[in-house]
Amino acid sequence: MAVHNNVFRGPQSVGQYFNPDFHLPLPLVEIPDRLNPYQKDKVRIYAKMMTCLPAQNVKSLPALQMLRDEPRAATRKIAEASSGSTILSLGIIARVLWGNEDVEAHVTNKKSRESLNLLRFFGIKPCLFSGLAQQEPTDPAGIMARLRRKAATSDDMVYLGQYDNEKNWKSHATWTGPQILQQLPEINLFSTTVGTGGCITGTGVALKSGKPSIRVLGVFNIAGDPVPGPRYYEGFQSSPFPWQQAIDARVEVSSVESYRMSMKLSREGLICGPSSGEALQGLLQYLDDLKKAGTLEELVDDTTGEISCVFTCSDLPYQYLSEYFDRLGAEEFPHIENEILLQCDQTKHDPRWILDSAQALELLGTGHQNRHGKADMGGLVAHQHVTKVSSTLIMDLRSTCDFRASHILDSVSTPLPGLFEGLAGGDLFSNPQEVSRVWTSMRKWLKEPEVSWLLTEVRYGKKKVLILCYDGFASQLVGSALRYQDVEAFPVRGGFIALYEQIEQIS
After folding, report:
1. pLDDT tens per residue across span 457-491
2. Whole-number CA gyration radius for the chain
3. Cα 438 to Cα 222: distance, rounded to the nearest angstrom
4. What is the number of domains present in the chain?
5. Labelling 233: which of 129, 243, 250, 405 has CA 20 to 30 A away?
6. Whole-number Å distance between alpha carbons of 87 and 27
7. Claim: this prediction has a pTM higher than 0.85
8. Is residue 141 part of a domain?
9. Nearest Cα to 144, choosing from 159, 122, 166, 157?
10. What whole-number distance in Å separates Cα of residue 56 and Cα of residue 54?
11. Residue 370 belongs to domain with CATH number
12. Residue 53's closest CA among 310, 272, 279?
């Protein structure tokens, strides 16, 4: 029974939040017409959003049931051969139920660092094994057999064994199947991918017990072309679950089609991972086979005159994002505008480092020496009323010619090649090509002996650096690069002219 206004209170609030009995049925959403090529054949297709479960994946239902059925899991280490939704759900729910933080994921060493860090984020300890990445539950030399043997002789560990734990499939017989029948009594066809076999077995058994005419489709990986979660059929047949009572037909789907369909669903607002795309793609392939064979009409419901189909959205795409770009072509994604900027200016910028002209003068210290003193074209000083603090160095990036014409007392000319007044219309960051050019020039400039020596002296003397350019933008690039090299650098907003005008105001 759903709680009032979906508010969970009290010491058992999170436990109740994870209990499906305290919620309305998970959403069943008809997919957009553009994803249903059989709409004209009176086929309606609905997504069962298992991603709306608190742990955001289909495995949280069997995880909940398996933990409830094993009271020793409250105080013992929990180990499972899983790197995905099952172990994530076990780790989260074990904390929710009992505060048990001792959960291990036995994971192939082929997993990415990103995947391992996801487990660690949720407080789950990754335990790596080598050899075959996807091992069979019945393999006596496999990781699952090793865990089974270890748990049998251990007083401080439990192994729930998702592949042969009957609470796995019975959780879907308790919740998923009955929910679908309640929401869509006219259902004719149910499609889901097959991993452990828990979802298809439990949901299929429940659906058929309520409506024997329902057809259940199992969607499998193609051998050697895996999608995370599902298995290939030859490796599944040894499952101890009563799947023969549930599965009427099976199809195989390529990983490319699975990832592509997942992306299409996600772009349409039904956000889901690759196994969800596989479930829908398998359903569409099956419908296509029936249509070509002239038997599609056998599924038409006598009451509605339609064919109502349901597939599962089992998890989310985010942990697999890199794989979408590995499997699918670049043409399937929007291009990145100004991609050249990914190759330059990657160090941190901080607005606190950018000084206005008044702040720059405060950093330098102010006095009124030679208030109107200006250099001639060959001189070195533009204004001499600034008494520079010795702990601050002024680096002037402007050209040698412009520096000679006018500059701040005791500033050092360190001309940045290619820099000139009016560059990029006075708005450098609006022109990615110019940003790249200036940044590339800066990298070479930083390696010049004079500049390198100067920065070494700055670091040794623990000096601050005030950076001047024509408009303040190039100095931001340089300031960011110097900060990365542990130099306390401060670009001046508006550049030399802004500081010049500030000096004029007080002179």
Report:
1. 999 999 999 999 999 999 999 999 999 999 999 99
2. 33
3. 51
4. 3
5. 129
6. 24
7. yes
8. yes
9. 159
10. 5
11. 3.40.250.10
12. 272
